[in-house]
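Entry 14. Ran structure prediction on the chain below.
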Amino acid sequence: MHLKRLFVVLLICAGTMQAFAQHKVTPRPASHSSNSFVTTPFDTSLQALKPLYRGHDARAVYTALSAKESTLAKSDFETSASYTERLRALSGTALVHGMTLTDLYAFSFKAKTSYDADTQIMKVKFSGEQYGIQPITQWSESTVEGGSYIGSNNFGVKRRISIFHTTHYNIQTDQPSWLLAEITHQAFSENGLALTEDGPTARLLSNTLGVLLIGSLTPPYATAETGVNTPTIDNPVDNTTVDRTLHVKLSAVWLYNLGTGEVIKRYGKAASEHDLTIDIPAIQTSKSVYPIGAHPTTFPAVNISSGVAAGMLLEKTQPFYPPIAKAARVSGTVVLQVTISETGLIESPRVVSGPAMLQQAALDAVKNWRYRPYLLNNEPVKVETTVNVIFALGG
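Output, structure tokens:
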């Protein structure tokens, strides 16, 4: 009886396997998902983008350019004309995913917005900086904890120092006249681009608005800068920051819905009604750009990250802790936007954020800070950055 049942079971299994063999599903070729990175040059004639559009993979492009650094870099013994000619010869070389050095790229990231319900104006910032539109846009940050050690100052005060390694991935653009004209025309030079939207639409866009930077790669293509934060008793953190920057010459900027792909606003030379004339050098150094919002006829300060600035710090005066703030148990960090002169002195410190009771003390303290001058082409230049002034009770 058991043998008979076993035979029936085997017959059923054999029939099932035969049926599966007869109706075997042929694997479908992998389709291009709308939320994957694109691998073809960007088409500016598109009326709408695919849902969940992500543009090109900026990190993959940066990595590919870094691998070709020795080939793409200008030699000290090479004239600008020879360098330009050599780059022209390399223009068709495959870089990543079949894209070349001269193709049109589009890099996407989420926008930072603020909204004024009275005027129905939405201000759009380029993500990554705390103060309006800047030519440097940070699209990624990663921090890795590296353990700790016991450190002490000259007075023998000991603290456990935490070690961190931070990497920023940035996109640095040129200063296009059409975007400067748009910002100046909108009168939002310190706050970014502007959209006029009703309340419900603005609420929706605040969570879904994306910025698409469209342009071509430009020398020096990919750069890396390292800054070191020296630990103190008040801030016992040993942090090494590496800024990896992809350099792009803008052709257009689009604002779009990250979910649906709808293009909400396009900015470009053809769309600008107030075009200006600016001669942009064919070959730029890593910092020869105009920060958006600066007048094109004046030489602007170079923008550097707070991590790079921390590595340049030579002399730091600890802030005076206001007694009224101590009594009120007010502590925290005051973030300042500062200009560092060619001689390493602080100029024009401005408050970005922080407790009101501590802001003036922070401003007074940084005026005495001293930095190693930032060199560009072996010449000291003025730089713009942010600094953190920390107030800790009992510190």
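The chain has two domains: 32-147+170-224+244-299, 301-395. Will compare against last week's run tomorrow.
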